Amino acid sequence: MMNGQKKRGPRIEPFRHRVETDPKFFDKSWKKLHDAIREIYNHNASGLSFEELYRTAYNMVLHKLGPKLYEKLTENMKEHLEEMRTCVEAAQGGLFLEELERKWNDHNKALTMIRDILMYMDRTYIPTNKKTPVFDLGLELWRDTIVRSPMIHGRLLDTLLELIHRERTGEVINRCLMRTTTKMLMTLGSSVYQDDFERPFLEVSASFYSGESQQFIDCYSCGDYLKLAERRLSEESERVSQYMDVKTNEKITAVVVKEMLSNHMQRLILMENSGLVNMLVEDRYEDLTRMYTLFNYVPDGLTTIRSVMMSHIKDTGKSLVTDPERLKDPVDFVQRLLNEKDKFDNIINVSFNSDKSFLNALNSSFEHFINLNNRSPEFISLFVDDKLRKGVKEANEDVLETVLDKVMMLFRYLQEKDLFEKYYKQHLAKRLISGKAASDDSERSMLVKLKTECGYQFTSKLEGMFNDLKTSQDTTQGFYASASDLADYPTISVQILTTGSWPTQPCSTCNLPPEILAVSERFRSYYLGTHNGRRLTWQTNMGNADIKTTFGNGSKHELNVSTYQMCILMLFNSSDVLTYREIEQATAIPAVDLKRCLQSLALMKGKQVLRKEPMSRDIADDDSFSVNDKFTSKLFKVKIGTVSAQKETDPEKLETRQRVEEDRKPQIEAAIVRIMKSRRVLDHNSIMTEVTKQLQPRFLPNPVVIKKRIESLIEREFLERDKTDRKMYRYLA
Amino acid sequence: MYTPPTTSTRGRVRLNVGGRVFETTAATLAAAGRDTMLGAMVDASWNSGVHDDPAPAEYFIDRDPSCFAVLLDLLRTGDLHVPPGLPEATLYREALYYGLLDRVRSARLGGFDPDRLRLASSVHGRSPGDGVAIRAAPDGGCCVSHGGASGVVRVYNWMLQERRPVYYPSHAPVNDAAYLDASTLLLAARERPGRRDDDGGVSSFSALTGETRHRFRVAHDRQPRSFTATALAFDGGCDVFASCKGRINEYGVAVWDCNTGEQTGFFYEPPGCALGEADRLQWLDGTNTLMVATMFPRTDSSFVSLLDFRDKSVVWSWSDVGTPASLEDKHAVDAVATEDGRSVCLVNQYDDLGFLDLRKNAASSGGVRWRSRSKLATMSGGKTKTKKAACGEETCYPKLAAHGGRLFASTGDAISVFSGPDHVMTSTLRCSNGGAICDFSIGGDRLFALHGEENVFDVWETPPPPII
């Protein structure tokens, strides 16, 4: 038998030397290790020889006793741990965690030394047999024997949670002990930490914050509640950084956010007297910042804030633009809009982190309510008119510039930009003709703004107006240079307005006084002499004049009046008393204008140049007028009510609207033709959307109008309906 | 009376190893690491009672002193010098005792230098069939796959001691092997007609014990099917790729998670590419693509494709289908992507090297730039021919590898090394016995060359650098 083995000997792995197996070999060796492990656990390792123990373990593995050794080791460590468990279980009250910590340190130290002894087994037997390495085995045993033992498991968790609860209610606890304990759980594996501590911790936290939030939301204002939530969040973060795993931070934050914020989101934001709307109204930047930061954590939090803010802006805006009180003063109306815009711009910039989506919400809200009032375009133009007239008073042009920039923001919200254009043109014309345009630079800068916003087309006519004035000045100079005998006539200044560039007014020429007529005719022949093929018509309804007057009482004044008024006053050079009918015949001024002129000459308080008989407000055909000899004024120059740009009366409004509608027709037609020319064939709905899209920058076309335009184009044979599909249109070249 | 320790003795350690006394410092021993026997021995936790002892600490170790001398020298200098007459196996055994085997390994195999390779040993196998493929393990070991119906793969550790062989389940013939790490071996096996449903395929094994870890299964329409896997590769993460041909002709490349063995994808073969029976798969780190090369004579034409698995697209492909026959019937028989990821190197049956530019579209680049007819190994030309004839054409086609910026090509019974941007031949590795080289592999600081005859493989290593 022995011989047979010897023969196979050399072929066996080289270092597995066969020794005479001592039947007691394992028991003897194991006893050695067993005793050593006991000494190690008893802190009495100084007498042990590491080399001897290592060699003993090595020999056991070499003799294929690895499995048995591993089994014995497991058993033995378990016994030691059970002893430790008894000690930990016996620890009273607050000493429990300390005892656990002490035993944990002991076990760790011992485990390191045990691993040292069994290093050879760790390297050879363990990997080939898929066993847990000694150190990890020690941790597993600690977990199962101590941490998860029935007497300790619940108590450990309760102790930890109790301490955290006490810390939350303001007590100071031993954080160091907490740290070592949670660290122990983490060392035992992330699943141990999560199952035995983190999950219950999050559950308990959820119920704690749920209770706290219920309690506080009833008695705190929104702002104070949010302060509390913010403080709680930072406390929890700090707690995690002090004695928990970093990964817990995200989870506990989510819990606090859910319990304190998400669950009460609607109630907090809409809280009466202190919610979001109040904060917005009172510009409480700090509270708003806090709300934004906190609800950023909440799913849909910012969306909710945004929509509440939007409906608030819409509501306040709507009441602003529809308040009949406000309609009385257009400048104030626009100023209020601008103030509102500034307010929310500030809030978004300061408190909402300049959030793009909030800015968009602000814009869309403004767009919504500004267009609720169809007079907004007019008012905005009036506001600009006011600013540009008074430009000089606002000494600083930069200030004016920023105001204009802000107005452009409002302009962008307008849907009916063509209506604004119309009004702006009118107002600009009046400013230019009456010479009230305060600053040429500001006017031009406004034009540039409109141009960049709406393109060249929008402003080309406005620019034409400026050019007309410039050439008029040159022409007038040329006129006076051309003849020397003009000094005898009253001085005139002629503004030649190109038809089409200026807002068209029904032209009704009045009879000019002969002095003026003569010089006007001279000018006409001069102008037509220098420009071939032109027509010149006098717009007597738009001019003004300065007249030197000597009243009966001897007082001398220079009266600044309109051309119509001049015509009337000149009549009194030749007669003392004139009836209304006589004046009407002599001047041929349209009755409405004439009546208005006479009213302003005779009835304006302090500026009664004429006397009316009888002294009633209404003017009848037989009423007579005479020069008021008792006219007095502190000023030498007296300005008689030139009608300045004012908001329109209702019939005027209707008229402008009609004109705008009329102007839109060719634009809609042009758009239809442009689209059809490129697409050739298109169905009805697509035309509608395309046309609307093309014209959106200027106005929102009415579908009914588009339909009518299409029909008109079909009539004029630009388009035809498809013969089979009536909804399709075909372009006819 | 207390005497303070003098500088001469502080930190000094006296070791009595098997009767011979060595004196060294605790620092030298601690440098071996806390996870070694010597490191633990001098650690404070085992020396709590001897703090105040002024005399050098003394330890007795009941081991062979001559081996200890070598290992202490290793700890002191980092060099491994084995005096003649000391058997390597004994040294390794002692190193394992002290927990220093990894140190010995890295000192023994330190630094692979393609220009200074020396034949370290030739290992004779004991398998019935000739070896067909050899793969180097990352730690310096290797495995040899044997043809025939045995499905056996012989596994060697870095000390070239043979471990338990790996048998593919039901002994399916193994086509390709790859080391996922030093202790995990992947095998791709051929499915045999008429066997049960889970024949062939891809599996991972413990390289230490030969046990199966995972079967990597392929499902089509949620139905697991048996398949033949021809080539393997894995990326830097946890994806394993294999070129697969299913029983009902499902051709393509399958992807698995190497940790779980779960299939995570399947790239079905598009027209114009050959993916299902590739000779070589190679993961290209730089472009995150997988090179799939299918070569003559497995197919009539040769194909090379780059696959991007993120969007399941073929980002580059080449084939010699339709190449004019006038080119003396040159067929690419192996392909490897160069390490810079810019080109693919090919070799044909006449041992010519050719290159494909990956940065250009394959169609526009004008196909393969074959190097002018320079026999790689002109000296042995005639000899190779006869050998080839003797051992059969198939086993002796040239093979390629790219490593450390060099290209390696096996031609006949030699391996040529090409260096530099122009791939100039800089050295030739030849060992006369064993006949033509049928496969070779580089890894773990070694080059392994498997010969087509006599069941022998050569191990080439870089000797320690000169002292000065």
TrEMBL record, chain A:
Pfam families: Cullin (PF00888), Cullin_AB (PF26557), Cullin_Nedd8 (PF10557). Belongs to the cullin family. PANTHER family: CULLIN. This is Cullin family profile domain-containing protein. Pathway: Protein modification; protein ubiquitination. Residues 375-602 form the Cullin family profile domain. InterPro entries: Cullin, Cullin-like_AB, Cullin_homology, Cullin_homology_sf, Cullin_N, Cullin_neddylation_domain, Cullin_repeat-like_dom_sf, WH-like_DNA-bd_sf.
From TrEMBL, chain B:
It comes from the Eukaryota. Residues 11-116 form the BTB domain. It holds the Pfam family BTB_2. One of its GO terms (biological process) is protein homooligomerization. CDD domains: BTB_POZ_KCTD-like (cd18316). Pathway: Protein modification; protein ubiquitination. InterPro entries: Beta_prop_At2g24240, BTB/POZ_dom, SKP1/BTB/POZ_sf, T1-type_BTB, WD40/YVTN_repeat-like_dom_sf, WD40_repeat_dom_sf. This is BTB domain-containing protein. It comes from Digitaria exilis.
